Amino acid sequence: SAAYGPPATLPERSLEAVAEHIKSGKARRIVVMTGAGISTAAGIPDFRSPKTGLYSNLARLNLPYAEAVFDISYFRNRPEPFYVLAQELYPGKFHPTISHAFIALLAEKGLLQMLFTQNIDCLERAAGVPAEKIVEAHGSFATQRCIECKVEFPDEHMKAHVLRGDVPRCGECKGLVKPDITFFGEALPRAFSEKSHHTAMADLVLIIGTSLTVYPFASLPEMARKETPRVLFNMEKVGSLGSRSDDVLELGACDDGIRKLAELLGWTDELHDHWRNL
Ligand code: CNA
């Protein structure tokens, strides 16, 4: 059932057509949006995949509901479950995936307009995407502060606490220390609203490994212009992807879809060199 009309920008709705769009030089402002699914191949569980996702494996933490581990009001009363999880997810233990490397390659070629990530694993930085091209929409483990007096807490102390799996407390007021990642009930970093207009400037949008269920991030793909091709690399169809005339769905493991796109672009060797050297 084709509720949409024929494609407005692409010759057809396929990855081949997307590769042609890039090769022809018509896609020079590529906006990429990522979620936990881009990092599962690195060994970091996502939230919602059945069986392997964090939410289905949190029973041992005795949470009233799965999302509580990232809920600010729950954290105030019981920070321990979050720190059990933080010990597992802490950056530095994981290697970027081929999909992360592809985003860095786009940046190297001057084609990356902006990367919006929901992830807190810092793997896009590790892959070599320049900091000024990254919007960490849900913050990251890079910095941390007291949730009461907001005083920053030293990185080295934080690292020691997280690796031991215990709860750090503020040196000034003894308040709880939390990494600057966005919990449910908290506002997103200012960079998100300041930079979201880049999506409207995009001539191609790549959406990789996200369930598009967490707002306001989930509304970003809607901000792309109607005729801008949007490509979804995901295990499942999500959000409104597929509803527009130039949407392309590449369903399956994102690394497979990204390898296929790189192949169509003639970038396979470059991509592998970049990835191997990380
Ligand atoms: P999610 O809701 O868990 O969804 C993940 C999506 O990715 C699902 O649609 C999966 O089907 C899909 N997926 C899983 N593996 C693959 C794969 N190999 N290839 C393609 N698709 C795959 O995660 P979202 O990011 O959408 O949810 C937003 C939350 C999750 C954000 O606030 C993140 O901070 C949070 N999170 C981040 C990490 C991380 O930093 N790596 C890990 C777990 C959760």
Order of helices and strands: HEHHHEHEEHEHHEEEHH
Rg over alpha carbons:
19 Å
How helix-rich are the residues, as a percent range?
25-40%
Overall pLDDT metric = 94
Strands in their spatial order, largest beta sheet: 3-2-1-6-7-8
Poorly predicted segments? none
Spatial shape: elongated
| Structural class based on helices, strands and sheet pairing | alpha/beta
Query: How many strand segments?
Result: 8
Instruction: Identify the bound ligands.
Output: carba-nicotinamide-adenine-dinucleotide
Question: What is the straight-line distance between the termini?
Answer: 44 Å
* Annotation field: number of helices: 10
Query: How would a crystallographer describe the biggest sheet?
Result: 6 strands, parallel
Q: Strand share of the residues?
A: 15-25%
Walk me through the structure.
- Keywords: Metal-binding, NAD, Transferase, Zinc.
- Its cofactor is Zn(2+).
- This is NAD-dependent protein deacetylase hst2-1.
- The active site is at residue 138.
- Zn(2+) binds at residues 146, 149, 170, 173.
- The mean pLDDT is 94.
- The strands form two sheets. This protein has a six-stranded parallel sheet. A two-stranded antiparallel sheet has the order 4-5.
- The N and C termini lie far apart (44 Å).
- It is elongated.
- With 278 residues, the chain is α/β, with parallel strands linked by helices.
- The chain has helices at residues 15-23, 72-77, 80-89, 98-108, 123-126, 155-164, 190-195, 198-201, 254-265, 268-276, and strands at residues 30-34, 112-117, 134-136, 139-146, 177-181, 204-208, 230-234, 247-251.
- Strand 2, helix 5 (123-126) and strand 3 (134-136) form a beta-alpha-beta unit.
